[in-house]
Amino acid sequence: MKIIITVVGNDKVGIVAAVSQKLSELQVNIIDMSQTLMHGSFTMMLMGELNAEADFASIKKELSTVGEQIGVSIHVENQELFDAMQNI
Hints:
Elements: E1 2-10, H1 15-25, E2 29-38, E3 41-49, H2 56-70, E4 73-78, H3 79-86
Antiparallel strand pairs: 1-3, 1-4, 2-3
């Protein structure tokens, strides 16, 4: 399954490191990534791929916890749902 992860918050050192480290721990492969800074605001969008045994709900919860710890908002969606919402 592919997932879309968005990270939004005030820019600070370590956001990319914290998110990518947690994804590695969760065995989520980063397929594509884009990030930008605008007047101190940080935005990152990633596409990840889960292995067959992965628990989507658990991954979503763990990434949300990382977001709280580092002071950013992390949102995770199934890629198929994300794509469908973009076509509405």
